[in-house]
Amino acid sequence: MTVRSRTQVGIVGAGPAGLLLSHLLALRGIDSVVVENRSRAYCEARQRAGLLEAGTVELLRTVGLGDRMDSEGLEHGGIYLQFEGERHHLDFRDLTGGRWVTIYAQTEIVKDLIQARLAAGAAIEFEVSDTEVGALEADQPVLRYTDAAGTRHEVTCDAIAGCDGFHGICRDSMPAGLVQVAERVYPYAWIGILASVPPSTDELIYARHEDGFALHTMRTPQVSRLYLQVPADEQIKNWTDERIWSELRRRLTVPGWELEDGPITERAITPMRSFVASPMRYRRLFLAGDAAHIVPPTGAKGLNLALADVTALARALTSLLADGRPEAADAYSDTSLGRVWRATHFSWWMTSMLHVDPHADPFGATLQLAQLRYVISSRAAATTLAENYTGYFPLAWD
Ligand code: RFL
Ligand code: PHB
Q: What gap in Å lies between CA 157 and CA 154, rounded to an integer?
């Protein structure tokens, strides 16, 4: 038996994009149903991003999601860039006229969003299976799924948002031949760890070392997060705690500074990829976040882009569904892709400048160093990094 229902917007995926979209639509009086194939506990524990642009922070505050972020988030006014054994500070506030970033983990944003949605009585179905989107030629597309108890559902929608991440089903549900993909797979990966030790730094350290890139970031004053460049086909089992800490120390240490180590509570390998699918819309199916694009994490853009997409999408869907005005929905893909390609360039540039390319010749490696020296010595070059890192495009929500 299939249970039939209807909603205004069917949302596939309870990651940050799908959850924020559902929240923003509710603020404008638009109903939605969110379906998610993982459990709530899994969504709330999945370790990923940590760095929010100023505009993302301001948006979350404006829409009533700022309380815990404001008390627990860590505001940073710059980063350190390290290469050739020296550490240099980039002061974003000075370079950009006062802009900053905030460390507040994606897991915490997801917890805040789930709590806010459930408290508002929203429909979020966790642990669904066999999600499908159909009738895409019609003005009433359908979302089908099987719930955790095994009941099949068919939800008739006015629009569907594919917020189902890189491995989701929505992108591939668009008509064959419509979607163009631009992609770059990098010849390295990151090992990321969480460790129960206070961060050894006040702001993030991005280090280019001849043995590979390393990043020291953090989650709280008691918890450090660190990343190491490793070969693309590396296996996590080859990395003991001792090996991880000794490699981090080799790549991060400068005279007069030491890395504190501590118990590693979580570890994973992340492949590095740039990927952009266009268009991000087919009729009443809209893609947002990682479902449409992936950036390597060096520029800290993925989560920020996902939240920017759904902010634009919530406005567009409100105009379409509440006021019958299609202009913003028609412009959604092109407008979003402009922002996505800026972040794609910045993330590629940071990645290429800071990682050791196993295929590079001495010419390539020397160019990287020339670029790094330029960034720390030219105010114009440093400002380019700072304005992209803190967020180049304003987010509009009123
Ligand atoms: P998500 O978070 O992948 O959520 C998609 C959700 O859809 C569900 N799903 C389905 N549900 C129902 N039916 C199906 N058929 C489904 N298929 C999938 C999935 O279970 C999931 O819950 O995508 P979203 O919402 O677009 O959010 C994107 C962000 O998660 C991602 O861009 C960032 O984490 C990227 N990223 C960073 N971004 C930043 O802005 N700043 C950072 O500092 C940063 N650091 C990072 C990162 C990503 C990393 N990894 C692990 C990829 C650091 C790392 C290591
Ligand atoms: C993180 O805190 O996980 C983080 C921060 C900056 C990055 C990537 C990841 O560029």
A: 10
